[in-house]
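Supplementary Methods, section 5.1.

A reviewer requested that the exact input to the structure prediction be made available. We therefore reproduce it here, unchanged from the version used in the analyses.
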Amino acid sequence: MKRVFLDTNILVDYALGHEYGDDAEQLLQHGKNGTVSLSASYLTFANMAYILKGKTDVYGLFHNLHEYIAVLPTDDAQLLFAHVLTLYCFYSHLR
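The structure derived from this sequence is encoded token-by-token as follows.
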């Protein structure tokens, strides 16, 4: 099964119906159907809560998304490893 990492912009586009919201919805539908395995970082959900506050039902959205999106752990070991990388790689490693 193909694994797909969801970045914050994909989920925000979906939640707010932005330009790429339809594409994001199609991708999420594949996750619901079990044709792909979806994951996102805890930070993605934290950023979404901040961005979407007052614009949508954040808790309802998170409850729905959590049913088919795995939340990847972020811990000290990842942070300690990531700090020795370049800034770009650091950011990518934390996701």
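The helical segments are 8-16, 21-33, 42-52, 58-66, 76-82, 87-94. These observations are discussed further in the main text.
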